[in-house]
## 1
Amino acid sequence: MLNSAVADVAVALIYVFVLVSVMVSALNEIVAGLLKQRAKALWHGIGELVLSTKLRDAFYAHPLIKSLAPPTSWMLLERLTGPSYIPRRTFALTILDVLKHPQAPLQQAHRALRDTAGALANPTPPSAAALAAMAVTLGAAGAALPATATGTALKRDLAALQAALAAPGATAASLLPAVESAARSLATGVTGFLTEGATPHSADLATILRILGENAAGDVERLRAAIEEWFDTGMDRVSGWYKRWTQCWQFGFGLVLAVALNVNVVSIANDLWINIPLRNAIVGDAVSFAKEPPTAGGAAPLTRLDQAEVRLRKSQFDVGWSRWPTREDWTRIPGWLLTALGASFGAPFWFDLLNKFVQLRAGGPKPDGKKAAA
């Protein structure tokens, strides 16, 4: 059992940080929403990822991305009303479409080549009708390819295989080399279309996509998956930017609240250590709060802000101002700074720490229901 005065003071101080950090988080959420900060961070992150302002603008103008954005507000720049979140699959589909990558015919050709190779490797050779059907499928895929340098070369190789499949007396032994050659051409084509589309925007982007395309080995689905992983890596960097921005603003909001409400943790800690009835009352509030914490996202930011402020004012802490500040109050500055610093850690951190200290103070976590019954 850990039920000492030190533990009680720690629980009470953590409770103070919980209430202040809840208010700070609510303010931060309000301001971030008004400034469209998540959308701005994502917009900059996409620009860093595709390495081209023109390509980023084309990406955001795509219907798939525009459908994710909220309605444009008259008081904000249009680019700041972009989406605050883009699914990885949507990014991959959109960037390939913006780069004019012929995903559908390439995937159709890949499946046709895979099925053809499988049929030719089968101990029972395919019938002439089956070979003719394969030829038709390859022909349709080739016809849908764009007439670029890459598309023309791939069309030629697919047409050669199509002719070989339709030739009378074709055998598996004679067809397999042609299938393998077409598969190599397809893998080159998948990469070639990427570099053709990306090079006008950025040579570095073309290099990145070429590497991703080569690893896909002609499979468009594998290419999409590789682009999704590349996107996730970029979004990890965006998350880091946003977290640093949030912590800076939370410190600022924490300092404003600490001064406005006169929340001086140094003075509060001293009062808690000296005043046993106050300490017991606050610990009781903290334990009660830990048992039924507010649900994350369960209330609007303004509501959470108001509820936390009411709890803080109803406590018996020496907070708030009963007079105008004077020059003598400069001694409170270290306490205000500590309050702001603590608030910058965020409400989830203090919620978790409060639960741990409450459990520690009570002698450890409660036993599982099944174990208790046993």
## 2
Amino acid sequence: MSPTQQQTIHDSSRSIADQASGSVAGFRDTTDTNHDGQAMPNTEAESMNEQSVMPLLVAQDVALAATKGGYDAVRFNALKHGILSRLTVLAHEDQNEFADLLAALIEEHRPAGMTERHLIEELAAIIWRKRRVLLAEGAAINRGLRSVAHSQHDSPIPAAAPFERGLSKEGRDLPDLLTANPEEIAERRRNAELDLTATRKAAAILRKGGPNAYAKARRALIQESRDWWDEQTEEEEYPATAAGLAQFIRKTLEPIGIRMEQEARLTPAIQVQTLGEGLQVHRLEKLNRYETHLDRKFERTLAMILKLKQLRGG
């Protein structure tokens, strides 16, 4: 702050204090006397003295705000002098964030006097508590999702498509399905469809038969399936013949291809089902009641602020 701004604030505060002192002095000159001629204390003068001192901090804040061109200048004074402000923000929370919230409310409503200032602090505290409610709600939902995603007994996968045959949780990575984005899902579905189509084409070639059926069927498979088949023949799991390849396709390749295509096609439904089961409403009932209480308190406090502004013609 420049020396000129500091001098302006000092002059504004000094002017307010001088006006208050002058008013009190005027009242003190008009003291009353009792029937014995003794001076009686003027209650009105003492009351005026107290009233002139109480809003002095607020007046200084307003003078500071006027110098800077806005109420954001009282940001730190709001936290320093506000009773609620010091108690609302917990040690692990961001005081600056609350200060910005309080300053924005002060700038919007421009309180006149300590009563309105207290109500503005109350309004900021309510909003701050609602922020905590949202954090708690998110934490409860995340815990529910974790419980559903890692359940060993009741997987949401079969329930995602209750009339889909062969859909089970076996061999499926549910967390991986949940984190897949639409582009990844579309790519997985294309690859699964290509793999299944190639596998069924190879099976059809083998069923048709012919002198080169084995070589043609092997070439019809995608590269990954061919490599897997070659490993099987090298390890002598299957013979490198048309009959051996047909058996490998029937028992292994085609069932896996069907499962992968089914999984890719139903991934969006599995995601929705898991998210729905993870939102365990019974865990949110107390939070919902608390949020309703805060909403009503916010409405009452705001209505009181607006009523006070209306009464003073603000």
## 3
Amino acid sequence: MRKTKRRTRTTRALALAASSLIAVALPVSPGYAGDSTDQARDHSHSVDGQLGQLRTMIQQRTHGQELRLQLNGSGNYGHVKCKNQVLDGVDVQSVTVPRGKICILVNSAVAGNVTVKKDAILGASNSRIGGNLVGYAHAVLQAEDNQIGGSVLMQKGRPAPDAFVEDLLCNNRIGGSTSLQRNTGFIAVGDPGLECGGNVVGGNLTATDNHTKKRDLFNVLNNLVGGNIQIIDNAGKGSKTVQNNVAGGKLSCFGNQSPFVGTPNTAAKLKGQCKW
């Protein structure tokens, strides 16, 4: 197996989404279960590498030509169905990625929801989403450096092509809650090995009944959560790591299949597998 590139882990800072940013420095342990990269797939080492592969897939599906809706922020569209397209610098009401299609959303503003349908793929970066980000039975849902006013729901995600991280959240500021339920594959909610910073979540962060295969990883790292964190009944032979998260409420970890590492974290109360 090729090894996933792991950059040096140093103190990482999470910025609290507010009118004046408040930096919270979190120490990152020198090693965690996800470091067992002999069993992990090669995921192109970084989020940027992942987005580059999505662009290549779009070009292949459109015979070498990217279909682009590019307005440089000057236009205002209504509901957009993104079918093998790059939405760059657009201002729209909502976005849907139909079944089996690929969409890249970058440097854009979406007033309402972004929805990813069955077997569809979304890469969202440097965008503002006023509503919710929802994936149901999606193939890939990756979001980096976005401001999301509502909640994030990733449910019943399906295994994707070998090079991809199926569920990836990095450096997002999320006003509501974040929930990952019954997904299969590589899951990263913050992962320094992928150059993927932690997220700021205003509500709760929940990951339940997800399944990680031996070659994949389940990582919840370096997140700042205003409410509770619940990591419940996640299974599979892949390494599962919950570390260096800060919760304003409780952090509860129960029923997660080995291999599992649930410390260190900071919360008002630590319970179960994440208790010191």
## 4
Amino acid sequence: MLSSAVDIGLEIVGYLGWLVASFTGDDPLYNLGLIF
């Protein structure tokens, strides 16, 4: 149960990071690499 919540949380964080990157015009993959 906990592991599933952690996976969902990481997906949400990654998605939000991708949204921020798309709005700022940076490379989403590069920013995701910085996050993880």
